[in-house]
Please model this.
Amino acid sequence: MWKVTGRWTESLSARDTSPDNWVVRGRWIVAVLTAVLVSTVAACTSDPKASEPGVHTSTTTSAVPRIPGALGAPGCHPASPVTVLNSFLSQVQGTGQGATLWGLLMFPHALPARIGDQEKIVWRMTGTGSLSMEAIDPAGTHHPLVWGPDSHLSSDWDKPGDEWGAGYRFDAPGCWDLRAARGTTTADVWLRVVSRSPST
Model:
């Protein structure tokens, strides 16, 4: 057996071939082979995408989108959603079939709507053509408006569509369907109406 040193070769000494020295060399070789084997296994089992630039293997959960409140449905199940616009006015969002409908509730009293009073609502509806409106009471009877719809030329209310004003007078408590039609599109607001208290 030969050991290479630089340009020269020399025979192994008797010390190099002793049984104890072979044990040491054997342990060293086993350690080196074990390290090589572990490195090979780790390289084979690692995710190849982890070493690619720009690829991240960690999983992240995207933010869950906020689910808006449900629009109104027949019988006020649920009633059309009402939100506060400012200190004096509230607005209601309709349920449209091919159009959007918003109402600005300009009542002469605090909500909710009540029987006997003339209730003014400013409407914004998308679509084309003239607007026709009616009120359907809890029993299904159709009622004309007290006045309107009257077209408004301009407004700073930031809802889509053209604008009209309309007047209503409710004669029974319960869920009323305020229906709007424009061209071939329709939309509804389901509004709860209450009885007037004896003191008002």
Summary: DSSP finds one helix and 14 strands in the chain. The two ends are 117 Å apart (CA to CA). Residues 148 and 177 are 17 Å apart (CA to CA).
